[in-house]
What does this fold into?
Amino acid sequence: MPVPPEALREVEAHRRRQPGRAAIGEHLPRRRVEHDLSADEKAAFAAVERIGEEVSEMLEYIPARLEVIQNVRLKYRCERADGSSTIRTACAPSSPIAKSNAGPGLLAHVMVSKYLDHCPLARQQRILARDGVVIARQTLCDWVLDGAELLSVLMPALHRHVLASPVIFTDVTTLALQAPGKTVTARMWAYLAGGHRKDDEGRWHAVAPAALYDFTLDRSGTHPRRILGEWRGYLQADDYSGYHARFREGVTHVACWAHARRKYFDVVKAMPKGARPGLAHHALRFIGLFYRIERQIAEADPDLRRQHRQRRTKRVLAWFHRWLTAHAPTLLPKSPLAKAFAYTLSNWTALTVFVDDGSLAADNNLSERAMRPVALSRKNWLFAGSERGGRPAAVLFSLTETARLNGVEPYAWLKDVLARINAHRVDRLEELLPMNWTSAAA
It folds into this structure.
């Protein structure tokens, strides 16, 4: 069944980036090293005049170093006018963690290494030992747990920010948990703020991105209901039955075309080499057509995106739906291709919601990308350790991923906030969230 030519109008071909060496960032400090002619080379000429220079740059690595900061509190005997005296001692910054000698920079480094760089604490212990600093692995573990507990006071404000967004992307993945004599499969959920809002002058603004992770021992539908509460809006999610109760309570389900596409891709991948293109190939072409449109309008505002989707994407989807319904009865009921057709058709309403709202995405890739740090950490750690370790992991994944999404350097944010949070006003904790953060050094 051909696609009408007008459905393809105005769609530009996708241009791949040409490979090349990336430029060295301007934000990095430069150290000038001059290379001159030798004295013998200069002596070979009657006169030598400098007329310019040629500059080339080489990126170099300087190993990190540890230092001990001695906080020296000066003491004074202070005499009053009446002849009496008292002792005054200057204040010094308190440690983020009580009864610990770990500075905020070291704590931030351990946390970033574990949750963003996916480096287990045992490996970090060996790296520190190579630098001549011996720290017990249990001490590193305690620092992470206590630091996460300190930062957990920011989670209610982060939760409120996510619930204030008109669109929430969500996904869930597994996490192995050690239990006495066995391994339990726990879950890590992600809820990401998304969508756009109009200001008083009618201009669109994207919601500040944020990621809220939630650690649970099972995949019960009570967990998303607990997190979402009375929230109403668009929930971009897969077809997990645990969300269905919310879809009956005023939450609009937006399904994921990447998830649907993957089912056809798996069919194609399983075909023998050299096999003729089949129905799965044709389905991928249909999906590719409206993804080409999505790439073209990616930078447009929601109003313009909706116009393009209504005029062009809707037509492609209508033809795709007729094609699916025409071929579905011809398939073996339990075949992977039949299951791909059935998934697409049964979720058609949720898959096509994005056409009517330009602030919605065609897929749930945002939350799937948010699961990559969890998946990479899972691969490196093997275990979350215990339930006691799972919940701090959710806190630190939430805050470091939110920092990354907002273009905030996670180490700089953690170091600054760990140094300030104990003295910060409780009623203004949202100021410390990455999207609102201003460094104390600024």
Summary: The mean pLDDT is 89. The chain is about 40% helix and 10% strand. The two ends are 61 Å apart (CA to CA).
